[in-house]
Amino acid sequence: MHVDHLSADEISLLEDLLVTHQSVAWVALTRDAQALPAALCSLIGEHFVDFFHYPVKHMALLDFVLDHANGMSYLRQRRLQQEVTAAYEMVGSSEPMLKLFKSIRRIANVDAPLLITGESGTGKELIARAIHERSERAKGPFVAVNCGALPENLIQSELFGYEKGAFSGAQQRKIGKVETAEGGTLFLDEMGDLPMELQVNLLRFLQESCIDRVGGTTPIPVNVRVISATHVDLAGAIAAGKFREDLYFRLNVLNLHAPPLRERGDDTALLAHYFFNRFNQDAGHRIHGFTRRALACMAQHAWPGNVRELINRVRRAIVMCEGKIITHQDLRLSGHDGSAPMVTLDEARSRIEQDTITHALSAAQNNVSEAARLLGVSRVTLYRLMHKHGLEIQEAG
């Protein structure tokens, strides 16, 4: 990287780049190190492996330093990956995952509500557990509740508990999930499936840090950190009247996004080998890996079920494989030979919708009102769709 003649704004942008890409090892080129501003000298000293004066007179030395930088980059990448992932099966070295690991470290000791978004199967509970284990609440319990799996008539008693005699069959007091998490972390998965009437109770708990057991009369203070997760577009649910906006803002003080597997590049092969090594032990090590075509097919597959789908396919292939190596047929990916990636209808519709919105915004020179007129929708609807597709564009004056 050539660092001469950088303005103050450019130095600030460079610092953002360096902080964002911590796994990269940088080497600087400068014509006169003594003429560099103090801020840039400090930046080079903190983030760069070495620097050279330009033009370079000793190419052999530069080759040696670049080789060293390459080795340092690999070690940094492995450190960032292993620091968080070892205990939680969060395996990955792609840029989206390295950014996620960095965010986990930053958020872990901030004792505020956190909302994790992402498609089903992306490992949202693993993220929540990693944050809990790195927080000051690590010695306390981690209590996970799948709000979408509980019968609607039992959610309130499961979350907040009940007193003896509160209803027919309540023969003794029961402590709810919220109280069980005292001193630790409460993970509320599939928040988008929580009925509206129960959202009010949860909002009160978040506002006052107190709960009422069903049939109880005395508020009970509870000290827990709340991490919630959803695969539902909550902004869309709010617009549709299915989710409370005030609850959304209470849950979304901090937020993380679990990247889908199709956006994680070489992580697909990395994960496949990881789970192969784990589950192949049960098969007596009779299988020796994947064919090249199997790996190519996995790279092209859209993975609508994300990591959960990958685990299921690999595990089944290990059991059903009749040879010494897993083929694309064993993975049931025979239709994906690398010639073209397969996508679901929902994914195809989503891509067309995003492309259409992007084209309209471009045609309207980023004026959201004009783009909404071109698309034949209201400005509120367009803002919701932009949020859904991650298109954060400021409306032109």
Automatic annotation (TrEMBL):
Keywords: ATP-binding, DNA-binding, Nucleotide-binding, Transcription, Transcription regulation. Residues 90-319 form the Sigma-54 factor interaction domain. Gene3D superfamilies: 1.10.8.60, Homeodomain-like, P-loop containing nucleotide triphosphate hydrolases. SUPFAM superfamilies: CheY-like (SSF52172), Homeodomain-like (SSF46689), P-loop containing nucleoside triphosphate hydrolases (SSF52540). Pfam families: AAA_lid_14 (PF25601), HTH_8 (PF02954), Sigma54_activat (PF00158), VpsR (PF20161). It comes from the Bacteria. InterPro entries: AAA+_ATPase (IPR003593), AAA_lid_NorR (IPR058031), CheY-like_superfamily (IPR011006), Homeodomain-like_sf (IPR009057), HTH_Fis (IPR002197), P-loop_NTPase (IPR027417), Sigma_54_int (IPR002078), Sigma_54_int_dom_ATP-bd_1 (IPR025662). This is Sigma-54-dependent Fis family transcriptional regulator.
